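Q: Structure tokens for this one, please.
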Amino acid sequence: MNLHTREPMIDTLGALETAALLRELTAGLIAVTNFDEALTELVRIARDAVDGVTCCGFTALRAGEPAGVAASDPALAELDDLRHGPDSPAMSAIRRREMITAQDLGQESRWPVWTARARGLGVGGVISAPVDVDEQVIGAINLYGGAAAPLTARHQLTAMLLAEHAGLLLAAVRDRERRTAQAGELDSSLLGEGVVGQAIGVIMTQRGCPAPEALDVLRSAASSLDIPLREVAERLVITVSRPRES
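A: Here is the predicted structure, written as tokens:
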């Protein structure tokens, strides 16, 4: 693409529209800790924010796991699903690591089986842009247009911006998901670990609260005193173990 064609595309899209789309996408995913939930939110926001797009889908390939799929319209979810075969615009984008466009599926011959299904569902065009998430996950975001409203150069630029921004946001979601899982594993080990477990039991008895809440109390005390968690636990256990003076 040369500069003479890129400038009109940017003017058509509009800086304010672009900023609003990416801002909404960031706000929608910034606190999500589940990857599948993030994909669902991503396709919903993209479908609602981009004029002329009838559906947005996402195809995700995760190492050692089945392919993940999200679609803003459940009726079109099968178009992002690989169970019908890998020959699709999304897989072409993932394999080639470049944006794939098909503005008129009535004239398309690259994915005959997929195209027949898509046209039967009322889809007239598609744009698939590859998304790099991390070392374990790659995918493609798919914008679908109806037969009466063809996708344009504006939609191609939108897909490119979405793919770049979504890759960063989804990587952050994956990182939060891992950290949450690790924290859960750590909590489980701490709950049953020696003096820390004893201290948690003391707090549960004193406050009548569940173990996770007691662990939070212990952590808060360690942070306030700026001493290790185990030392706070030891002090608490020693304190309650001392015989009371008569």
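A few notes: The chain has nine helices and five strands. The chain has two domains: 3-177, 192-241.
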